[in-house]
Predict the structure.
Amino acid sequence: MDQIDLFSLQQTYNRQRIMLCFNGPLTKSLIEEIGFALRNYMQRENAPASSSMDVFGAYVEMTQNIRHYAAAKGWHESEAAATVVVGRDENGRYVVSAGNVVESADGQALAERVAELATMDKSTLKSAYKDQLRKPRADGSGSGAGLGLIDMARKAAEPLTCSLRALDDKRAFFSLRVVM
Amino acid sequence: MDDLKIEGSQSTPAIFCDAVHGVVEMRGDSYPENSFELFSPVVAWIERYLRDSGQALMLRLHLLYLNTSSVKIMMDIFDLLNDAHAKGRAVSVHWFYDEQNERVAELAEEFREDCDFPFAISCQADSHA
């Protein structure tokens, strides 16, 4: 195995203004712990309470979506793995990104959904959100049932973007980016 | 009718349903993975209270961040109150938020749009007071 080059990692993190990153299986308690760290970090940076809550909210929705997805697929908990990065863009805005392995067809559908949301203005997004809120739950589902993406799109400073990279003929790596 | 008390945690609010005074109080953040599971006893308590007593019911909320799963279950609860209100029951919500965090007020405001019963939203200097 190659020696881990911490210096080059540090350079990359600094250059890309990465505040926090995580790679690996997500558990319920990890989501809370990292979320707690994220909030503390933002408090130390004197971020306004509302933007701190927006960034935290995007982080929670993304990571919980990834856990719900793995559970819905019947995957083992260790397969609920994600790569999560919170940082800033060149204008100082907060950027929350998360990526995970999905079945190709699901990734395709998600990418289409993200593209669809990108065409909506804030008031259209609000009615889409309220419609979704009124839809009955799937059996036993305690998740937000499709609200998460719309919620993030509503709070984001610019349309959500995503990418899909094929891993083999069945699976792909889906990543989503939200600017707050 | 018994009271219902649920201890809070980092990701779940402290909840107290007071049968004598007809008050349901919730305090804290709410972002459990499965809000349905957490709130089911609360929904059942409210249903029973509205069915078995003729008293007023007030929800006193000091909720901060809600994930979308919690938003969905809160809407279910407000729908119960809407139904009770339509039948002439005295039901109300009072949602308190910290002046530093207008996101909470926006969230409460959006719920209020879908509620027919009295729904107050108040700013307080310190939400932990």
About this structure: The mean pLDDT of chain B is 94. Helices of chain B lie at 35-52, 68-86, 102-112. The CA atoms of residues 15 and 26 of chain B lie 5 Å apart. The interface with chain A takes residues 10-11, 31, 33-37, 64-65, 67-69, 71-72, 75, 98, 100-104, 114 of chain B (CB under 8 Å).
